[in-house]
Specification:
By secondary structure, the protein is an alpha/beta fold. The protein has a single domain, classed as Ribonuclease Inhibitor (Leucine-rich repeat, LRR (right-handed beta-alpha superhelix)), CATH 3.80.10.10. 31% of the residues lie in helices and 8% in strands. It starts with 26 loop residues before the first strand and ends with a helix. The relative contact order is 0.11. One of its GO terms (cellular component) is cytosol. It holds the Pfam family LRR_6. Keywords: GTPase activation, Leucine-rich repeat, Repeat. One of its GO terms (molecular function) is GTPase activator activity. One of its GO terms (biological process) is nucleocytoplasmic transport.
């Protein structure tokens, strides 16, 4: 079976992510195959070959099926892997909306898609949207793993309405409090929000290969060990800096 190291958050402390094997599954080669597999909801993994290049239109089609299934009870599919599909901000937002009330999918992996700052913001906002007017965030409390490796995430302009409160990082990601693992490897993130230390269920955060300006080199050396191995020291640093800010205010 193919091994996907570093994707699984719910590992015992003495268990290496590299030893985890992905459940046996069929690799879909077209959008039509993926939609059919999704409708059946009988396999644990939906993985779409990167050659499919489904774009925002394909992501919207997948989101529509996810919405259709939201009220049909529990299915078997828990992992979605959509690498290199040319999914942008619009498609990311649609996937977030499609998963908002989904009770099955616990892992969403979107590596090598041009999602960017805007796409992450819209994806997170759609996932976190309350189910009812005046309800609490997040709406989706099922998603545990979010993979955003090589997704062109970088600071925004700092002037527009979308990013004026947090131009360096899409802060809405912090509303997804059910997440246990976040992969932000290989982006262009320059500032990591200190509030990551407040995420109650987070056990792994991969920020390797990012030009971070607000994390000291000695902390980053440990953080480069990866999701779980590097997180305790990174979290401790973020928490200490966060508390300093509170003490000054």
């Amino acid at each position: 079976l193919p091994s996907l190291p570093g994707l699984f958050p719910s590992l015992p402390q003495n268990h290496s992510p590299k030893e985890v094997q992905m459940p046996k599954h069929t690799m879909c080669t077209t959008l039509e195959e993926a939609l059919e597999l999704l409708r059946k909801n009988e396999e644990p993994v939906l993985e779409l070959n990167s050659h499919a290049q489904i774009g925002d239109k394909g992501a919207t089609a997948i989101a529509e099926v996810l919405r259709e299934q939201a009220g049909k009870g529990r299915g078997k599919m828990s992992i979605m892997i959509l690498p290199g599909q040319m999914i942008g901000p619009e498609g990311a937002a649609e996937l977030g909306g499609g998963l908002n009330k989904n009770m099955d999918v616990t892992e969403l992996h979107l590596p090598n898609n041009p999602i960017g700052y805007e796409g992450v913001k819209r994806l997170a906002e759609a996932l976190a949207a309350p189910w009812t007017k005046g309800g609490t965030k997040p709406g989706n409390k099922t998603l545990k793993v979010l993979g955003l490796k090589s997704c062109d995430i970088e600071p925004h302009c700092g002037d527009c309405q979308m990013c004026r409160f947090s131009p360096l990082f899409p802060i809405s990601l912090l509303d997804l409090t059910s997440l246990r693992m976040i992969d932000l490897n290989s982006n262009n993130i320059t500032d990591l929000p200190l509030q990551f230390c407040e995420m109650p269920n987070l056990v792994g955060l991969d920020v390797r290969k990012n030009p971070l300006d607000n994390i000291p080199q000695d902390v980053m050396v440990t953080a480069r060990e990866g999701h779980q191995a590097g997180w305790p020291m990174l979290k401790a640093y973020l928490k200490a800096e966060y508390q300093k800010g509170h003490n000054r205010s």
